[in-house]
Amino acid sequence: MTATFDTTVTRAAVEDFLYAEAALLDNWQLDEWVTLFTDDAHYVVPTTDLPGGNPRTDLVLIDDNLLRLQSRVKRLNSRRAYREFPWSRTRRFVSNVRITGGDDRSVHVEANFVVYRVRDGVNPYIGRYVYRLVPDGESFKISYRRAELDLESLRPHGTVSIIV
Q1: pTM for the structure as a whole
Q2: How many CB atoms lie within 10 A of CB 87?
Q3: Which of 4, 43, 74, 135 has the smallest set of CB atoms within 10 Å of its CB?
Q4: Nearest of 157, 25, 18 to residue 91 by alpha carbon
Q5: 11-149 has which fold?
Q6: Rounded distance between C-alpha atoms, residue 7 and residue 43, angstroms
Q7: Rg (the chain; Cα; Å)
Q8: Contact status, residue 11 vs residue 108, Cβ threshold 8 Å
Q9: Where are the chain's structural domains?
Q10: What are the tens digits of pLDDT across the range 29-61?
Q11: In terms of Cα–Cα distance, which of 3, 20, 14 is closest to 92?
């Protein structure tokens, strides 16, 4: 089968989707956010020392399928996520959105991001997103989401306690 790419998908439609996703996360609407994913979704956050790391062969910070992602959301919405209770305030900036290709199922997208986490000071998470978005009616579903951090280390506490 030959892979095809639907050229009717516009950057503006992709940007609108990414901005809406960012708003859900900034407003801690995590239950709504997780519904943006396909049943076979994959969410990866590599380590800061190996941003191109492959979860099959390398240690990564997060390597979630949909079930693990739903569990992460459930924990973040509870009191058990002590680093995030009460919730941190976040503000996300998504920029340089580019459609980099696609196949017979999905649109491949890259974008830059800055996520400011406000809790006992301001902690920025800076990096690049890589997405595979599946067209779904007038919008998209996320089949793959990767957040590659451009940080030398995770400060102040050495973990990622929010959805980046």
Answers
A1: 0.90
A2: 14
A3: 4
A4: 25
A5: Nuclear Transport Factor 2; Chain: A, (3.10.450)
A6: 25
A7: 16
A8: no
A9: 11-149
A10: 999 999 999 999 999 999 888 888 888 988 888
A11: 20
